[in-house]
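It is worth pausing here to work through a concrete case rather than discussing structure prediction in the abstract. The textbook approach is simple: state the sequence, then state the predicted structure, then interpret. We follow exactly that order.
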Amino acid sequence: YDRFLPANELCGDYYDYILHPDGDFDVVVADVTGHGVASALVSVQIRAIARARGPFEKSPARTIKHLNDFMVANFHRQFLMTMFYLGYRAAGRKRPRIVYSGAGHPPPLLLRAADGAIQELRSQGLPLGVDGGSRYTEGEVELAPGDRLLIHTDGLIEVYDGSRRQWGLDGLKQAMIASASLAGREVIDKMLREARYFSGQRPFDDDVTVVLVERSGAGRKVSLHG
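Step two, the predicted structure:
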């Protein structure tokens, strides 16, 4: 499930789903610095490269490294991009796994259906475009039936109330727990309502992208609905 709320007509946020020939797939969420036409064009180029490479590359870290090399070589630090790259890997496995890598992106939140605990999927890589020598590592986690993984850009959490207190990851975690009984798209809608309520119903200052990946409670199928 996903929602995309650009602050302007053109923006630097983007998300994508990339299908592999064996049935595995990737989920990409990224955020380019700035707004407007220039940032949007950077996103378009990175999306095209990721789509060309993704179906034939099983390593999110190698894909991110390739994208970083492109940005360093072509944009000379004029633009930076944060990214979270998730790979759902079930082909040839008894149990499907999530393999992920990140480049300076806010940590996605994994809500466990079994006990209601929330885990942050943190990654240490620098944003794309900073340094050609950057190294990117991978993490792995199992997605159990009923688990939900929320990937977002910082526009969702960097909202403030009248006293300049930030909603932040803590506010997002509370909203995610409170919406545990809701259906997929309703979860995202509730989070957006909670963020707006916290800010006094002010519009978001930055682009907002939210993707929710949920494994079906009846089997091993992961639901991805636009």
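Step three, interpretation. The two ends are 5 Å apart (CA to CA). The chain has a mean pLDDT of 90.
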